[in-house]
Every structure is written in structure tokens, then in C-alpha cells.
Amino acid sequence: MDEQPALVAAAEGLGLAADGSETGSKERLKALLNRKARVTTTDGRVFVGFFVCLDNSGSMILSATEEFPPSGCRCSPLRFTILHRLTHGTVILTWAEMETY
């Protein structure tokens, strides 16, 4: 079976490969499917949604996602609605823009 190195590297970056094996990483990722995830981007925004997958480039895909502004943000009231959040459907967060997960 052909392994996908970017996917495995992304899983290891998420701290999912305890033993360093590719199989272990994939199994741990499968255990996270459809579970709620919280991702902070490098610009301070927070996305909370259900983990759907990592693509081959290591981008994380979340469904039923809400976006919260950075703490201390004086954002436009038109951009962030009730309780300072935006509701999205599916979002793709690239590996480069993720700070914490």
C-alpha cells in the first residue's frame, strides 16, 4: 500500500504518532473523524468545527464551522454577528496558517 507522506507528516505535527509509525498516525487520525476540533490560526482567529480530514498537502478540513475573532479584536459589527462569531459550512485551513489545534 502506497503511503501519503504529507498526510503522515501532518498527523505527526498534530502529535498523533506516538510510535512514529505511519500506520499508528493514520489510526489516530481515523479516531478523530467527526469529532469537534478547535484551531487557532497565525492571525489569532479561532475556528471550531468537526474534523473531516487532512488532504494530501496537510490542510485540515472542518465542517459546520464557527469562526471567532482574535481576542481583543475591535472588529466591525457587520463582520462578526451574535456573540462575535461567523458561521461557515466547510472550511479548509492550510498547514501554514494553523498555529494550534
From TrEMBL:
Q: Which InterPro entries match?
A: LSM_dom_sf (IPR010920), snRNP_SmB/NAA38-like (IPR050914)
Q: What is this protein called?
A: N(Alpha)-acetyltransferase 38, NatC auxiliary
Q: What organism is this sequence from?
A: Polyrhizophydium stewartii
